[in-house]
Amino acid sequence: MGATKIAGTGVLSGIVPAAPVTSVERPDQGIVVNSGRMSTSSRVLMGACLGVIGPLLRTVPINRTTIPIGAVAVDLLSRLRPEPHGIEREQIQLDGFRMEMVRPAGGSRALRHGAVLYLHGGGFAVCGLQTHRAVVAGLARRTGLPVLNVEYRQLPGSISASVDDCVLAYRWLLRHGADPARIVFAGDSAGGFLTFAAALRAREIGLPLPAALIGLSPLLDLDYRAKQDYVNVRRDAYIPLSGLEAVVRLGAETEGPLDPALSPVNADLTGLPPVLLIAAEDELLRYDCELMAHRLAAAGVPTTLELWRGQVHAFMSILPSMPESRSALGRVSKFVRAALEPAQRARTA
Fold it and tell me: What's the farthest any 2 CA atoms get from each other in the chain?
């Protein structure tokens, strides 16, 4: 495949366009980066989502009673996965939540060389350090950087409280010698929401912005009503619109109608650092990625939107060892290294 320029980004990648991308007025089309056959593990994952996970999520209500049960079940399942190799882990306790610093074995322990702040997905309700350790370890090994995995407070608390914890985690990095010009925020699904919300909150309170933002199947618009007629509502392998509605009602609508200002897509995006968005071609949250890509481009923010054919929502964090996941994480790591190059050149000049 030849190198193709992504509209509005100035980034060159070997890609297969989903459709002709000819101008910055169409940045929300995205690019399909995998045109080959699905791997066996990818087909198995798709089958499990269509046949088991999707029907379960469409049947079981999401409420204050079921969330703790679901959280325990997900955590127990994650413990069946072998512990990742080639890493070192350090447990960190802050006020009300835990974090885990994951470093490549034998790598530098100095945060001044760079770091990734990783915010896990799980609908603001489930998952944590254990469930996302494998994808965090994959990023640490590929980038050579320490990755701070944050187990922020979750529902039935508020989404705003989750954002507060992520900003506190960023403050921790800064206090411990990390240069904001060498920090990248990344997260999947609900963690993708927190990636952008934490950066925007940090800027609001006077903290410096990080070097780049990465959203993996990110939720970026809490307005579930806006997605009702989106074509991927019927195509998504396992994420139901009703589940998104339940999460928003629990975490953002407890005291009245949804405040649009809570959604990163509605913020003043001017001045944000370069952004990489990755989504499955047929997932529900492709809507959020397309909308955010359009608004980021309008704000002059360098943005790349990648679409993955035949994959499910947040595939790279569900099965990080899957061939498609390894490829996606490789592209994420390349983006991280490119984002940190200006700071590296400045340090060595």
Answer: 59
pLDDT in tens, 151-187: 999 999 899 999 999 999 999 999 999 999 999 999 9
Q: Among 119, 118, 112, which residue's Cα sits nearest to residue 180?
A: 112
User: Tens digits of per-residue pLDDT, 266-283?
Assistant: 999 999 999 999 999 999
Contact 105, 126 (CB under 8 A): no
Report the number of secondary-structure helices (H) and strands (E) in the chain: 10, 12
Q: Is 23 part of the annotated catalytic residue set?
A: no
Give the pLDDT of residue 29. 60
Q: Are 246 and 64 in contact (CB under 8 A)?
A: no
Q: Is 294 a catalytic residue?
A: no
Determine which one of 162, 189, 317, 325 is catalytic.
Answer: 189
Active site residue 100: no
Q: Is the peptide bond before 55 cis (omega within 30 degrees of 0)?
A: no
Whole-angstrom Cα Rg for the chain: 19
- Find the catalytic residue in 100, 151, 283, 324: 283
Grade residue 24 by pLDDT with cuts at 50, 70 and 90.
very low
For residue 100, what is the enclosing H or E element? strand 97-104
The reported pLDDT for the residue numbered 343 is 65
The one catalytic residue among 120, 313, 324, 325: 313
DSSP state of 278: E
